[in-house]
Amino acid sequence: MKILSDFFKSISSDSTVNIDNDTLESFTDEKILAISILLIEVSKSDDYYDELEKNTIIEIIREKFSLDKNQIDLLINLADKKNDEMISLHDFIEVLNKECSYSEKKDLIKMLWDVAYIDGRIDKYEDYTIRKISDLLYITHSDFIQAKLR
């Protein structure tokens, strides 16, 4: 996961967050990065990415992956940058299809809905984005609907 290490090294000199080599080496999980990018993708799909959505993503990541504040800050910055630069979801979906069980992928769809619902409404673009991600992760339609309605 040279990309993450290179990114962390490049921002460490001008970032207010202290980074050490142990943090860099321990944070090399493509799966967590891919999940974070998809969470951000859903939050930005309605062209309205606010602090409430960002804080929801941070809380989801903290609960699911037990990362410390520095790791989460770095991850969010990297995921946000990657999200802005990405052309396609497929590279990130490929990581998740290789590394996640079906149950983990269903949990991800639930997390995506949590982000979409946080502002009290589901935008048609949020719905479309989650549906597209769900299809690419080979989630059945019934599991997609169950995640949406829970």
Structure description:
This protein is mainly alpha-helical and 150 residues long. It has one domain: TerB-like, CATH 1.10.3680. It contains nine helices and no strands. Helix 7 crosses helix 9. The protein is globular, with a radius of gyration of 15 Å. The termini are far apart.
Kindly report how far apart the N and C termini lie.
Answer: 35 Å
Please tell me what the overall shape is. Answer: globular
Strand content: under 5%
What is the architecture at the second tier of CATH?
Orthogonal Bundle
Helix content: over 70%
Quick check: average pLDDT?
A: 84
- What is the makeup of the main sheet? none
Q: What do we call the CATH topology?
A: TerB-like
Question: Number of helix segments?
Answer: 9
Strand tally is: 0
Q: What order do the helices and strands come in, and which of them pair?
A:
Layout (H helix, E strand, L loop, with lengths): L1 H11 L8 H6 L3 H15 L6 H15 L3 H17 L4 H10 L2 H16 L6 H13 L4 H9 L1
Helix pairs in contact: 3-4, 3-5, 3-6, 3-7, 3-8, 4-7, 7-8, 7-9
